[in-house]
Amino acid sequence: MRRHLSTLAICFIPLTFLAITIIAPLHAMLRYDDTSPLWREILSDPYYQHRLGWTIFQAAFTSVSTLLLALPIGWSLARLQFFGRNLIQKLMMLPFIMPTLVAGVGVLALFGEHGVLWQGWQDTPYLLIYGNIFFNLPVAVLAAQHGYQSVPAYQLAAAQTFGANAWQRFYLIELPALKNWLIGAGCLIFLYCFSGFGLALLLGGQRYATVEVEIYQLIAYELDMSRAAVLVWLVLGVTALAGGASAWLGRRHLVGKPIFRQPETPHGAAQYAILFISIILLTLFCALPLLAVAFQAAQFSRHIGTIFSANETLFALKNTLTFTGLTLIAATLLGFTHAAMARRVAWLRGMTFLPFMISPVCLAFGVLLVYPDWTDSLIMLIALYTLIAYPFVTKDILATWDTLPSHYPQAARMLGASPIQAACKIMFPLLRPAWRRGLSLAAATCIGEFAASLFLSRPEWTTLTTLIYQKLGKIGAENYQHAIVLTGLLMGLAVGVFLLLGNGYGGQNKGTE
């Protein structure tokens, strides 16, 4: 009886939070008036057909392209031991922690009107595709690397003994092992690209805007909530299918513990060529946007004094750090209670990733519908920040908790410790590294949060991301230069917080699996 009561108490906090921030907004959108007649109109309208078709195409094209690019890179990291390998694996975490605004500005700094590499590519579809690949290539590379590493060494040795060449070994042995890993990663990449907002807003322009941007424009500029509601349900339907496909097709079956092949020093022209191609691809698609931001920020450093003496910059920086700090406190509480709930009630484990399956634009729209009197409340903004951030904490805590022996707290109880003492003195020290890892990703996410801040924006809630977006929307080279410098500050802040909290989060990152 006591265990049932404690389970109910643990479940109350995360389930109540999810009901308020997800279930109630979704229910409000479902019951929104005057949407039924619009379904046929929107689905038959060439304008909305183009928006939906382009959104699906860019997400699918990015998924396939990213997986193809990841194959040689994943093979190099899984099979070859070379100088800088560990550093590359750690640097691949950078796109994970970069705010979408940093990525978007980095792409514009390369190929936009003031691009340092190739100017004049704004208002084309290629910038959004490139930005999507920047964000998602590390996801595909990690999936490919783990897929290659999952192939037992004896299978490769046996195939080589029977005369199979490198291509035959890849096609007959490695590719079947890679399939589930790549399909799961591809579904997640499609999910992100289809429901992405920040990059599409910055890089898509008017012609290549996605459905998420269209929802934002309908609400912010046209106040057309009915059409926005229809588009929201279209987005939710497609993302639900992609999420279900990721869970079903990306499942992995582990049998026993075979001995895996260890990385070896490259030998032969072919292996060196694959390694060289892998480094070039990582440089082109992962490093260049960040280097472009750093280069142009240094180039426009003469504006640093003006920018940091302005009240709007200090105010935005204060808001960013305040909102992040408040969110991390809430994310810690929800992260631990959600992990404990998932440990007690197995079927609730799937709810860990529920906030990832719904875009911030859809959630912000639902909040506007169900809590109209609370949209000017800071509590609602922090709640949306927390909803986006706390699954990172839950995921890492739960993954570590599952590996701990169950008799640790039982032994403490037998020695006279209370449940609270066992939790504080035994379990928390063991879970602290996982908590810090999850908190580092949550902090980086909060610092760069853009969609919720833009939807619920108020002058007194200006953050670094909304300030940068305002600067980019103004005419004049000086405003662009100020935006670049602020983007450099945002990038440095995200990396700094991640390193401060992460404590060595990188390399073989368990959280990304």
Automatic annotation (TrEMBL):
PROSITE patterns: ABC_TM1. It holds the Pfam family BPD_transp_1. GO terms for cellular component: plasma membrane. It is a multi-pass membrane protein. GO terms for biological process: transmembrane transport. Its main location: membrane. It is found in: Cell inner membrane; Cell membrane. Residues 52-242, 317-501 form the ABC transmembrane type-1 domain. Keywords: Cell inner membrane, Cell membrane, Membrane, Transmembrane, Transmembrane helix, Transport. CDD domains: TM_PBP2. The keyword Transmembrane applies. It comes from the Bacteria. The chain crosses the membrane at residues 52-71, 91-112, 124-144, 181-203, 230-251, 272-300, 320-341, 353-371, 377-393, 480-501. Belongs to the binding-protein-dependent transport system permease family. This is Spermidine/putrescine transport system permease protein PotB. It comes from Alysiella crassa. The gene is potB.
